Amino acid sequence: MSRKYEGMIILDTRGNEGSVTDLVQKVSKEMETEGAKLESVEDLGRKQFAYNARKLAAGQYVNVVFEACPNTLEKLQDKLSLNESIYMQRYLRIA
């Protein structure tokens, strides 16, 4: 049973030679390979944090709307947690 989710992913772009759009595309491809059907991917831009957490002052925010099964979401979170470019990820079921 597929459900609709909205995800907020914060990217750590320090030390990344490529552009931010390349990094967003790589994360999108990782999500699709795990079985998520992407509806929209929106780059919200770079934003400053309220305080320096883990020696990081700002992050690139990406909003993702997709459909996936609940077990696919768990696999997706596990796989993306291994990606060093992803600082934080949060998901919310919207339908």
Task: Offer a few descriptive terms.
27% helix; 95 residues; 2 helices; alpha+beta; 4-stranded antiparallel beta sheet; Alpha-Beta Plaits
Low-confidence stretches: none
For the record, the CATH architecture stands as 2-Layer Sandwich
Strand content: over 45%
Q: Quickly name the level 1 CATH class.
A: Alpha Beta
Shape, per Cα inertia axes: globular
Report the CATH superfamily: Ribosomal protein S6/Translation elongation factor EF1B
Largest sheet: 4 strands, antiparallel
Number of strands: 4
Q: Which secondary-structure class do the elements indicate? A: alpha+beta
- pLDDT averaged residue by residue: 91
- Across the major sheet, the strand order is 2-3-1-4
Secondary-structure element pattern, one letter each: EHEEHE
Cα(first) to Cα(last) distance is: 12 Å
Helix content: 25-40%
Structure in a nutshell:
Helices cover 27% and strands 49% of the residues. By secondary structure, it is of the alpha+beta class. The chain is globular, with a radius of gyration of 13 Å.
